[in-house]
Amino acid sequence: MSFNVLVTERAERELNQAADWIARDAPDTANRWFNGFVTSIVSLADNPQRCGVARENHRFPFELRQLLYGRRRTYRALFTIREHDVVVLSIRHSAQRDLTPDDL
């Protein structure tokens, strides 16, 4: 079964901010990182269940999963699955505090 991947405005903004932060020191790296992360997010259409439950899942009334990305898996795309849709809610660095319902 193929899912539709929807990226919220918040997640898109956070992804762009992360790429901008990386680009300050390494513009070429930031471009590759951004394109690779987008490709990984799009790949959720095929099998989003392959990704584990996020550490802050217990705080939400729905299942919150995470896609880890980066050479050291330092970035997380936090998402939920709703029927035929994968909804990417947030992009976070692993050093950032955990996502809370109030953040959304």
Give me a quick take on this structure.
The protein is of the alpha+beta class and 104 residues long.
Q: Overview of this structure, please?
A:
By secondary structure, this protein is an alpha+beta fold. The protein has one domain (4-95): RelE-like (YaeB-like fold), CATH 3.30.2310.20. Helices cover 30% and strands 25% of the residues. The chain contains two helices and four strands. The protein has helices spanning 9-23, 27-42; strands spanning 4-7, 65-69, 75-82, 85-93. It has a four-stranded mixed sheet. Helix 1 (9-23) packs antiparallel against helix 2. The chain starts with a strand and ends in an 11-residue tail after the last strand. The mean pLDDT is 95.
Characteristic terms for this protein:
single chain, 104 residues, alpha+beta, YaeB-like fold, four-stranded mixed sheet, 2 helices, 4 strands
Distance between the termini: 28 Å
Low-pLDDT ranges: none
| Structural class assignment | alpha+beta
Number of beta strands: 4
* Strand line-up in the sheet with most strands: 1-4-3-2
What Rg do the Cα atoms give?
13 Å
- The fold-level CATH name is YaeB-like fold
Mean pLDDT: 95
Note the total helix count: 2
Total domain units: 1
How much strand?
25-35%
Tell me the helix content: 25-40%
CATH superfamily: RelE-like
| Largest pleated sheet | 4 strands, mixed
Shape category: globular
In the CATH scheme, the class would be Alpha Beta
- In CATH terms, what is the architecture? 2-Layer Sandwich
Question: What string gives the helices and strands in order?
Answer: EHHEEE
